[in-house]
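User: I'm new to structure prediction. If I give you an amino acid sequence, what do you actually give back? Let's try with this one:
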Amino acid sequence: MAINGEPNRVPQFRQKLEESLADPEPMCLAMVRVETTAFGGDNHGPSDVSESDVDQLMAAVQARLSHVLRRYDLMARVEKDTFMLVVKTLADTRVLDARMYQLYGALSEPYSVGGKTVSVPVTLGAAVRLPAESAASLMKRTDKALATAGAAGGKAPVLI
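Assistant: Good question. You get back a string of structure tokens that encode the predicted 3D arrangement of the chain. For your 160 residues, that looks like this:
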């Protein structure tokens, strides 16, 4: 399935995630789910963004994520307005927490799309990998963190 002119990268993302989890080098790793509400109506996104501008907007979101992520982090657009990330650091969870706020801050700045300036609500949920944790378990906990962040109004990232 193509999203924003790019083929779906979910299978490659999953494979890279499995490789990261199997890496014997000790590191602090977190999976992050970034959900934007880039679409008007029921999703509570900016209603003045036309459907034709949505791809441009999501490309801008992806560019901001790419700017903040490092070369060894992973990113995939998994739904029309959702990204999954794997953020790696050799430091501890305080560094990951700071990176979550860096991502949140970058994504919260207004965007210029279709000659308009729009703000896009964003919710970030992240889970730090537990020892010997499977990809499925990590994804499930990441979804829980996203739900927690959403229930709190999406005003700050949640890292569990």
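You can read the tokens as a compact description of the fold. Here is one thing that stands out. The longest strand covers residues 28-36.
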